[in-house]
Write a structure and sequence with these properties.
This protein has 305 residues and is mainly α. The chain is built from eleven helices and four strands. A four-stranded mixed sheet has the order 2-1-3-4, with helices on one face.
Length: 305
């Protein structure tokens, strides 16, 4: 299954449909009830997550210990730009990643950039989502969302697509395995993210934590132990870990504060995974004060408070 030609708009915005996620729903996998790798082997010849027409640059394999000690660059974060701010010198050949410091979707791409060691190659531009500059929608990214990536006079969006794009088009350690079984497993995990988020947040406006939310966390616990190959989903740090961790960064303090619910209780794999993720410098540099995250979620989900 190959990639499609990106549609370039007059302002350089590129439709990201050329990074399709292969549908693993066609494998009849129920992500809540079954994630057995036995399902992968019978479909390996036809379904591979990276069976796209991309130039994948494979570098050294990343481990927690290597990432914890790699490029401990204390980046000075630029202030968010608001409606009173002038735009940067757009489309001047500079690669820019537009983010919000509090957005979990933007955080995914930000972490990917950091873990690739691209702090000096991809400029970070923060946008104030509560008071957005008009030029961002008019001149940069018409959907007016973050994240977006300005690269070679084009602008791309959608967080998962951008993570894969940065990993495959820029130098630095690869964040995706070459093993085909792991690639297929990654595809299943990517396809489950939206369902996972909906299942977890289904409890946020209720008095307690419902069975659906508990089942979602149990699914992640099982997924982390499925390959029996390390503390991360695919054994080594990958885009899958990066895709999920911003949400856990928010779920853990919120549920503990509001529901007195410990996600890691009786889930040792999740506890170990969080512990290892917190050692990754590229992730640590993007973390937000948990108190601010809790207050943000309270305003979003608990309007009576």
């Amino acid at each position: 299954m190959g990639s499609t030609t990106p549609a370039i708009m007059s302002n350089g915005y590129v439709s990201t449909s050329h990074f399709p996620i292969i549908s693993f729903l066609s494998l009849n996998l129920n992500p809540i009830k079954s994630i057995s790798l036995s399902n992968f082997h019978s479909h390996q010849k036809h379904h591979h997550f990276l069976s796209l027409n991309l130039k994948i640059r494979r570098k050294n394999v990343i481990t927690a210990s290597s990432m914890a000690s790699t490029r401990k660059m204390e980046e000075i974060l630029p202030p968010p730009l608001d409606s009173t701010s002038d735009p940067p010198s757009l489309f001047d050949g500079t690669t820019r990643l537009y983010v919000s410091y509090t957005c979990p979707y933007a955080q995914r791409v930000w972490i990917t950039r950091n873990c690739k060691g691209l702090q000096d190659k991809i400029e970070l531009v923060a946008i104030d989502l509560k008071n957005r500059p008009s030029w961002y929608k008019e001149k940069v990214y018409p959907p007016n969302k973050v994240p977006s990536l300005e690269y070679k006079n084009e602008v791309r969006g959608e967080s998962l697509d951008l993570m894969k794009f940065i990993d495959s088009h820029f130098e630095g350690p690869s964040l995706f395995p070459s093993d085909l079984v792991k690639q297929d497993f990654a595809g299943v995990l990517f396809s489950y993210i939206d369902s996972f988020h909906k299942s977890v947040t289904s409890s946020f406006k209720e008095d307690g934590v419902n069975a659906e939310t508990g089942a979602a966390f149990d699914y992640i616990e099982d997924a982390l132990s499925k390959l029996n190959d390390g503390p991360f989903f695919l054994g080594q740090l990958s885009l899958v870990d990066i895709a999920y961790v911003p949400f856990f960064e928010r779920y853990i303090p919120f549920l503990k504060d509001v529901r007195s619910y410990d996600i890691t209780a009786a889930r040792p794999m999740i506890a170990m995974w969080i512990q290892e993720m917190n050692k990754i410098e590229g992730y640590k540099q993007t973390q937000t004060d948990p108190k601010l995250l809790v207050e943000s979620y309270k305003k979003r989900f608990l309007t009576k408070l």
